[in-house]
Amino acid sequence: MSMEMSPCSRTSMGRRRRRRRRRRRRRRRRRRRRRRRRRRRRRRRRRRRRRRRRRRRRRRRRSRRRRGSGAGS
Predict the structure, then answer these.
(1) Euclidean distance between CA atoms 70 and 56, whole angstroms
(2) Closest Cα partner for 65 from 32, 36, 1, 73?
(3) For position 69, what pLDDT does the model report?
(4) Tell me, what's the pLDDT at 1?
(5) What is the spatial distance between Cα 41 and Cα 12, in angstroms, rounded to a whole number?
(6) Distances, alpha carbon 53 to alpha carbons 12, 41, 45, 48, in Å
(7) Three-state secondary structure along the chain?
(8) CA distances from 6 to 14, 19, 26, 36 (A)
(9) What are the boundaries of each domain within the chain?
(10) Which of 54, 30, 52 is nearest to 41 (CA)?
């Protein structure tokens, strides 16, 4: 009986791998939602661009200060 169970277990593992591939396809469906956001971006484009630039600059300055304080101590 053990010999018959071994091929069955292999087929179950193969089916599980196929299900994981389907999950990756669901991520592509999220791109469709971006199309809806594009309509809203037309009104908020100026506000979002300014906020993103400020956040990036602040992160770079903080990282440099931490490295300098660690090297001085």
Answers:
(1) 22
(2) 73
(3) 56
(4) 47
(5) 46
(6) 50, 16, 13, 9
(7) CHHHHHHHHHHHHHHHHHHHHHHHHHHHHHHHHHHHHHHHHHHHHHHHHHHHHHHHHHHHHHHHHHHHHHHHC
(8) 13, 21, 32, 49
(9) 7-73
(10) 52
Could you give the C-alpha distances from 38 to 46, 48, 65, in angstroms and in order? Answer: 13, 12, 37
pLDDT tens-place string over residues 2-54: 555 555 555 555 555 556 666 666 666 666 666 666 666 666 666 666 666 66
User: In which residue are the tokens 């440099």 written?
Assistant: 64
Comparing 12-16, 57-61, 62-66, the range with the smallest average pLDDT is 12-16
Tracing tokens 């591939």 back to the chain, one arrives at 21
Q: The whole model's pTM is what?
A: 0.10
